[in-house]
Amino acid sequence: MLKKMVLSAAAVALAVCAVQVPANADPGFTPAKTDFVGVGSDTTQDVVNALAAAYNKTKPANKLASFNATGSATFVPKKGLPKRARVVGSSNGIKALLADTEGAYDFARSSRAKKTDGSEATLSFYAFAQDGVTWAVNYNSFAPKSLKKSQLANIYKCSGAARYWDQVGGKKNGKKRVAIKPWLPQAGSGTRSFFLGAIGLTDAQVGSCVNQKATNIENDGTKVGAGRAAIAPFSIAQWVAQAINHKSDRHGKLVLGKISGVSPTTGKITVTKKGGVKGKNIRLNAADFPHQFLRLVYNVVRTGDAAEFEPVFGPTGYVCDQTALIRSYGFEPIGGGCGALS
């Protein structure tokens, strides 16, 4: 059996957010001690929840249980263990797995790659799909349709060259200049760290004009708000799943922006006068979107436990065979790359 280790409630300070989530967001059962429990990334929580539910219908000896990053303030990971705070974001999920001493967490969802500094050397990252990250704004925003990488960097540095939308190709509100209101998810977010890396910034370079509160939840347009001046990073897969495929929809009125003139999605999207979106066969534009804004997403396990997860996350495992389900949540299957370890 797996060597179960888990984070105590006070071991790591984890972000907590009490927002409404779909009824099927959490497993719907209290996992047994032998079940495989996962926490972490907001970006992949919906697709992993769906994969877990489908996998459990095969009646495996060890069920998969994926707990959302948001929902009730606390949850019980396994029978016999106390309640604990939600684990919000990829990095916090990985930290929870590493700090684990009680046997509650067996894998972490991650929308970022393995760190190369050695701090995650005891973990194995199973790739299972492709995603991308772009910027999103209100459908009636003052923003232009496209921004360059350098403009995004200036916006998030709060550079004097990018404090108003008309400085980067956007519009004024009549004759009045409109200040850009950049927004970032909380510090443990994999989408945050990936987006900043893609535009060439570190956390230390993020400017003081950026809204980066600890309660900011990634890929949630209702958290960004309805303001016409705001801008936020958004998972392309999550936006497609929510806005087009109507899965756990919380995109609000946000639409995705182009980078250097290249659309983040394939197909034609129509935006109505009230901000509704319509489209058919809308998918991640993996072929043409700038490569630095494309990423793989992962399920992370302890390396010592990897053999037990091969039938689930490995190249010939259950997850890699679920290409239609993965695509229905906006992600692109990665063929022979699925189940690859790092």
UniProtKB/TrEMBL annotation:
Residues 1-25 form the signal peptide. The keyword Lyase does not apply. It holds the Pfam family PBP_like_2. Transmembrane segments: none annotated. Keywords: Signal. Residues 32-266 form the PBP domain. This is PBP domain-containing protein.
